[in-house]
Amino acid sequence: MALFLRCFLISLFLFVSGCSGIQMLGTKDVSYLYSDEFTTKITTVKELYRTGKSNEALSQLKKIDEQVLNASERAMRRNLIGVINFSQKNFEQAVYNFELALTTSQEDPGLTAQIGLNLASGHFKMGAMDKAYNALVAAQPENLEINEQKKYHQLRFSLAKELGKLEDAASSMFAYLADKKTLSDLRADPVFEKLVSVFNELDERARLRILEENAKPMATAPAYLGYLQAERLYYEGKKDESTSVISWIKSSFSEQAEIIELLDGFVYRIENYAKMDPKSIGVILPLSGPKSDFGKRVLLGLDAALKEVNGSKNPEFRPFNLHFRDSEGGGALGAHRVRDLIEKQMVSVIIGGLFSSEATKEYLEARKYGVFFVSLSQIFLPKEQKDHLLLEIPGSVESQLAQVFSSELLNGFGKRGAIIYPQGDRGEAYLNEFWRRAQEKDVRITGALSFKEKETDFRVPVQKLLGLHFTRERQEELDLLSEVHALEKKKSIRRIQTLKPQVDFDWVFVPAYPEEALQLLPSFSYYDAENLNIIGTPSWRTQRLLRESPKLGKLYFVGDNVEQASQAFSENFVKRFNKAPKLIEMRSYDALKTSLKLLNGKDYKTRDEFNAAIRGQTKLEAMTGVWNLVDGIWLKDMETLMLYRGRIKEATITEPAAE
Hints:
Rossmann fold; 3 domains; alpha/beta
């Protein structure tokens, strides 16, 4: 995939560079270098090339007498001959002409830079990576238009990384991201992840050197990576080095309010709330109000986990203590309880967020103080706002989409996907990760439709997805089919529309809650769209959907396959509480058991020590799944399950999607 992307970029570079005409670059007008007669001929050649008449365009170029041209005109003619040869895969001829073009192009800086890009592309295609890289280094990107500069930096990054020149690769990405002025813009760009990856491969000295080389007062990327480096050094126990980096950031990027605020927050955290009690764990649940029954069920799972660990007969063992707070079902009050537990009980971990409406606010409050937060529900925040101090027990949005875009599903279903998502923070979190994963996996998105939360009629988004909402484009087909159906003597009472649905996707992801899914899914059958690959979320593991599944056909969802893993737990649970556990008890058990595994046998004195230990983990294992630390956040290994005829079982997806 990486090689394909590089080849694609190079083709794009070549087209833009070869077909851009005589133009002003910046404030320098170079049109005087080219006669009107020459410009007219070149315009004709470019038009022939754009319309696919490459041979005719090449013939016209060869008819132009080079002896009567000035130096810049000769360079442009040779460059275009090289472009056409490249498009015809005559790479040696292309390189030959690009090299000749460079000998006479110096009066036009923009053309010279473009030829440099083309020459690098030619060498790349011939496998001469060193020559391609040297050609790029010789080119001067400041003489290119802004969009071409970005392509230059992307290509230079790929070549530098290929050749093991990691510092240059990082510098190229810094240059590419120079126009990002806010943290949200920076972290939302997929290129930033590439920069972070390369940056992390450098040793400590190289990181600091590359930061200093790229430091400009308003450059967000080096400022933010400097902040991350200060954090890293601190958590590695190199507090003096961390303090030095913090001072450098404050002096080099003093005008960047976002970075300074972030830095001040970090300094505040390490100066305050640093002490913690490793035997003290906070729990925030709705213990009163309409949601209290769910909170009380969580207590059973917590009790089962606590008894297992506190049952140690070692006389030196100091038992763990749980400190409970009532959120009363509200996020704002839950956040206040977080602060209370940190200040008064010095808790090492907080377990909470039984409902997503509470989870986000509780987590954000815990994050301020660097406290490990274990959420019993998903948190609908952008990926950039999550870190290693958040563990989402049901599997985060990122975890779910990692499975939806897994090789297993894409090879089985196909690489044309669609999504129907709810409006609001929940849907936005799913949509953003859906797009990010689609770009990463080269999946074509054929539809992205939204519905309002608490909607009762889902026909419109389904209509749009199936090409039935705007029928003007299909009016002729509609009229013909209407006449045919009007002649039917025994018209089926079930027929509800005349046009056939247009299914241009291999699968559709529907991150809807069960009550929404029960109203949305029948709309597909209503419009005669049968046997679709519909994929849902872990919330689809409910009795309501199980009961209705015979009417809905075969459905898929990503979730936890806990049937075998939970057998021993279930037996012990029944013995103790005289009833079988459900998923909520299993997840609460895992939440505490995972926290206790991290803390048991350790004597952490400060949050820094505990946080460094968490950051040093690569995997967390529990009854309902395994979490891996990937790009700084915990991703849960999910499975694809099938819900069919009242049963849930592991899905086996081996056959490619039918055309």
